[in-house]
């Protein structure tokens, strides 16, 4: 992959494994960045080429305009990922990242590139409906939401300068996900949904409704925990992903 394909701008490889038999592409949550998946990359580096997406408006891309529309973001990401499909590719998206991964998978399947599997974590199905307006709150309201979800480093929440840097991207991401859908579209690739049993953003029945969004296999796995269950349950999640990656290699 070269500078021309845009991967140097969008993708972060913390532990490159160019000869690995399978690739994993990770999609961050609202307000999240590629570095959230550094531990995942470290844990899987022995047999998988892990990439994490870096959205505009954060960390080293903080001077770029934020994108507040899931469809527009998916349109920009899909062509960047096309060169990765020289071997099996698995997507993992958490929260907003789950919906974005789904939309990117739809676009890539239309181009003839089907992911081996899509992990949709911590997010209800695209066809479900909830009235949410976090993106319309003032800064204090958004900070309160961040604290409630426990998805942001406590150091950031206590540092006013860091907060000022993070809030525009977070507001934009909330606008993107809260104005998305509902949609009843499908992908052909299998979908595995991971969710916490105490997630205020996603009930187990809402997670189950992802079943209607694939014409392939469907699996639901429930973990103990809230919206960011995957941090305290990291070992279990990594084991689940590792097993799926082995399956993708076998099928591929």
From TrEMBL:
Belongs to the thioesterase family. The keyword Hydrolase applies. The keyword Cell inner membrane does not apply. It comes from Streptomyces alboflavus. GO terms for biological process: lipid biosynthetic process. Residues 25-245 form the Thioesterase TesA-like domain. The lineage of its organism: Bacteria, Bacillati, Actinomycetota, Actinomycetes, Kitasatosporales. Keywords: Hydrolase. GO terms for molecular function: hydrolase activity. It holds the Pfam family Thioesterase. This is Oleoyl-ACP hydrolase. InterPro entries: AB_hydrolase_fold (IPR029058), TEII (IPR012223), TesA-like (IPR020802), Thioesterase (IPR001031).
């Amino acid at each position: 992959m070269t500078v021309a394909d845009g991967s140097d701008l969008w993708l972060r490889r913390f532990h490159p494994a160019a000869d690995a038999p399978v690739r994993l592409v990770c999609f961050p949550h609202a307000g999240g960045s590629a570095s959230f998946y550094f531990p995942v990359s470290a844990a899987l580096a022995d047999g998988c080429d892990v990439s994490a997406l870096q959205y505009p408006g954060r960390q080293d891309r903080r001077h770029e305009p934020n994108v507040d529309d899931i469809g527009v973001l998916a349109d920009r990401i899909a062509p960047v990922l096309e060169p990765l499909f020289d071997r099996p590719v698995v997507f993992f998206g958490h929260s907003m990242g789950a919906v974005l991964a789904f939309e990117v998978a739809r676009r890539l399947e239309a181009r003839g590139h089907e992911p081996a599997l899509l992990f949709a974590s911590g997010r209800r199905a695209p066809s479900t409906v909830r009235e949410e307006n976090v993106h319309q709150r003032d800064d204090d309201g958004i900070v309160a939401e961040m604290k409630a979800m426990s998805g942001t480093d406590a150091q950031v929440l206590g540092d006013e300068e860091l907060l000022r840097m993070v809030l525009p991207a977070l507001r934009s991401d909330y606008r993107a996900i809260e104005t998305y859908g509902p949609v009843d579209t499908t992908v052909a690739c299998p979908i595995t949904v991971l969710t916490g049993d105490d997630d205020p953003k996603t009930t187990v029945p809402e997670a189950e409704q992802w079943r209607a969004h694939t014409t392939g296999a469907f699996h639901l796995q429930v973990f103990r925990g809230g919206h960011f269950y995957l941090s305290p349950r990291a070992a279990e999640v990594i084991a689940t992903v590792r097993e799926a990656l082995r399956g993708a290699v076998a099928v591929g």
